[in-house]
Amino acid sequence: MTTMAHPNPDSIDQKSVMELESLILSLKTELQDRMTEIAMLKETGDAVSRELEKRVEERTAELLSANNQLRQEVSERERTEEKLKSFMDKLEQSNHELEDFAHVASHDLQEPLRKVTAFGDRLKAKYEKELGDQGRDYLERMQSAATRMQTLINGLLTYSRVTSKKQPFISVDLNIVVQEVLSDLEVRIEQTRGSVETGNLPEVFGDPLQMRQLMQNLIGNALKFTKKDEPPVIRISSRTLPAMKSGDPQEKGLYEITVQDQGIGFDEKYADRIFGVFQRLHGRGEYEGTGIGLSVCRKIVEHHGWSLEAKSQPGQGSAFVIRLPLNQNRE
Ligand SMILES: Nc1ncnc2c1ncn2[C@@H]1O[C@H](COP(=O)(O)OP(=O)(O)O)[C@@H](O)[C@H]1O
Ligand SMILES: [Mg+2]
Known about the structure:
This protein is an alpha+beta fold.
């Protein structure tokens, strides 16, 4: 019988127990370490979450106060807008009243005026001999005053019609408009030996008849207010101005159309006054006219949402500048 060498079971157990014990011990230490770590993490986490909460509270308070401020600003703005709107409404109403007045007055004034002219004619036809030289002179002056008054009334009517007889806007080629105006003024240009130079003009969106009135008045003035014995030299030109660098997205750039002459000019302190109805800087003895042309021009330009201004110096000629947006709103 062979005897096998068996390990001593007691000694094995003893060893395993010791190993196990040491394992447990190290696990315990490990566990304790982890627990401490967790406790530390928890503490840090709490501190972080407290800090976060505090910040959220602060931010909320900030937002609330900003919100309140914004609300205040909005309501203040609304109040201002309301005021502005009521002001605009009043302005529009008073404009309407003025237009009605100009319209009615022009019509009502025409009737008595026709009578003055008609009875003047009869007086002349029937009693010319009896009137004598002085009587005829009086009568003639009366008749010419009546004619002038008719011209003034017609001017007022034209003025009031700019907005009372609104026409739909269409695409208008200003080159053609100016050609037509120049052909209407052909005789006058020839008589004065004037020269007119025209650059390439844009196509605009507007009332074609009013475009014609506008150019007619400006070119007519440039032909009229010339120095004695000096033929008029007129330049009609256009250029584009790029959008301002203001960053304003509405600003799309401009067309600038200029009617320039080398005539008598005027002191620029009157540059605004001349656009008023019946406003004239030059006597009728020198240059005939009614003082309505430029007021019609400005009304037309404003009716289109454009601008018109004058630049001049006495003896140095004048320039009338129309400005309109490059991309007009065609809605
Ligand atoms: N091109 C110009 N050169 C000098 N003065 C001008 C010119 N255009 C207008 N004016 C001045 O502005 C005034 C008003 O012009 P406007 O309203 O056209 O009236 P009118 O031509 O009937 O006199 C003119 O009487 C004149 O004094
Ligand atoms: Mg005129």
